[in-house]
Amino acid sequence: MRMRPTLSWTPTEDLPPGTTDLEPVADALGAGGVLVLSGAGISTESGIPDYRGEGGSLSRHTPMTYQEFTGSAQARRRYWARSHLGWRTFGRARPNAGHRAVAAFGRHGLLSGVITQNVDSLHQAAGSEGVVELHGSLDRVVCLGCGAFSPRGELAQRLEAANPGFEPVAAGINPDGDADLTDEQVKDFRVLPCVICGGVLKPDVVFFGEAVPPQRVEYCRKLVREAASLLVLGSSLTVMSGLRFVRQAADAGKPVLIVNRDQTRGDRHAVTRVALPLGRALTAVAGLLDIPIDGQATSRT
After folding, report:
1. Most CB within 10 Å of its CB: which of 88, 115, 235, 257?
2. What angle (nearest 5°) sits at the alpha carbon of residue 140, between those of residues 183 and 191?
3. How far apart are CA 171 and CA 182, in angstroms?
4. What pLDDT score was predicted for residue 296?
5. Global confidence as pTM
6. Which residues of the chain have pLDDT under 50?
7. Would you please indicate which residues are annotated as catalytic (active-site) residues?
8. CA dihedral of 117, 52, 297, 230, whole degrees rounded to 10
């Protein structure tokens, strides 16, 4: 029997309480060389729920695992039906003040890089450059047979044509773009193969239970080595894919600062954790640094 990946975390030690003091964050950014590591919490103000916060999707929804997706045609039908519906909403999400603040910090030369655990591409839509998408992006599709990549929009059009009248009402949308639908609602959904080789199509994202590509991990480790400090934004750090970079930074004596409303698995490594909403906190930090935030986000395609 396969073990399910870690989806939740319960504190086992007395962790320092959160603060509302933003001065340490402003000081770190003012010194420059800050590497940002963002999680689902930065996108909640764009209408995309997180996994583990208050009202998080894990309370009602278990994400698809890589093993389920690759091992079952029925699981793939369920995934693509739910994801196709979710994409209609997910793809319309726009950057919020938190994303725009990160982009502004980058434009002013305060950041050494941005790593995101999110698959929504909202950092790039806000204007951030060189973003490392640790878990990939829903904007792309990859064939597991021939390895070809294609835009998600193209597959969406194909699925629309193959499933006329598919208009179920979803109970909610999840951080991975997956809509909450019942088995009855998805039973007749038609899944499409790769147009090149007829192989199985998968969103170019790292599913739960799937490893982040080693070369991507090593590049992120390089960014941590080169950074002056690490600023975690909106991540519970429950899964090792993000926590390992916090541990690396702390082991190297680099300050780790966390802005997240709830406790995180990395709190004991941090010099401070600010317990405020991301948009409000980062807007305030930008004000402390006298940095204007451009409210105009770029269009998503």
Report:
1. 235
2. 35
3. 9
4. 45
5. 0.87
6. 1-6, 52-53, 55-60, 296-301
7. 135
8. -50
Q: For residue 162, what are its two tokens?
A: 């193959």
Q: Give the position of tokens 């070809």.
A: 148
Instruction: Write out 53-116 in H/E/C secondary structure.
Output: CCCCHHHCCCCCEHHHHHHCHHHHHHHHHHHHHHHHHHCCCCCCHHHHHHHHHHHCCCEEEEEE
Distance from C-alpha of 290 to C-alpha of 148, rounded to nearest angstrom: 45
Residues forming beta bridges with residue 133, ordered by sequence position: 116
User: Between vectors from CA 225 to CA 272 and to CA 131, what angle results, nearest 5°?
Assistant: 80
